[in-house]
Specification:
The protein is of the alpha+beta class and 147 residues long. Helix content is 43%, strand content 16%. It has six helices and five strands; from the N terminus they run H-E-H-E-E-H-H-H-E-E-H. The strands form two sheets. The protein has a three-stranded mixed β-sheet with strand order 1-2-3. Strands 4-5 form a two-stranded antiparallel sheet. Strand 4 and strand 5 form a beta hairpin. Helix 5 packs across helix 6. The chain is elongated, with a radius of gyration of 19 Å. The protein starts with 7 loop residues before the first helix and ends in a 5-residue tail after the last helix.
Length: 147
């Protein structure tokens, strides 16, 4: 069974963090990068306190007249799903599917973000494992490798 830790090299590259006091304009700038899906918002001790997506920013901007001094903390989703590196990819996929998530932060034991797993990566890995298991089962049934 594959685990989140197998995707950590990629997840670390995808991780973008900001302070809860950073301006929303900085978050918008980061989310405009190709492939950017989510920013993990951190407190002073670098623990994750929320997440921001482009939708969160747009929703918030329509509610305010002047967003130039808006902070990330006012727009972030404080109730968010996260995983740890020892979670199975199957359980992560289930959480993502049920909650319609495109990405999920990976947190360490202190609650600090160490990566961001994309649903696409989780699914590709799970499909790869399933194909390999299917191939091994066919080889076993056909007696390949056994004399």
């Amino acid at each position: 069974m594959p685990y989140v830790e197998e995707l950590l090299p990629y997840a670390k590259q995808e991780l973008k963090t900001l302070s809860d006091f950073d301006p929303i304009a900085r978050a918008h700038e980061l989310l405009r990068a190709p492939g950017a899906q989510m920013i993990v918002i951190c407190s002073e001790d670098m623990t994750a306190v929320g997440v921001l997506t482009q939708s969160d920013i747009l929703d918030g901007l329509f509610e305010q007249e002047d967003a130039s001094d808006t902070r990330c903390s006012s727009q972030m989703g404080a109730n968010f799903h996260a995983c740890i590196e020892t979670d199975s990819l199957e359980s992560v996929w289930k959480t993502m599917s049920v909650n319609n998530l495109d990405a999920m932060p990976v947190l360490d034991s202190e609650g600090r973000p160490i990566g961001l797993v994309a649903a696409k990566c989780v699914l590709v890995k799970l499909l790869s494992v399933a194909r390999n298991e299917d191939r091994l089962m066919r080889e076993y049934i056909n007696g390949m490798g056994y004399h």
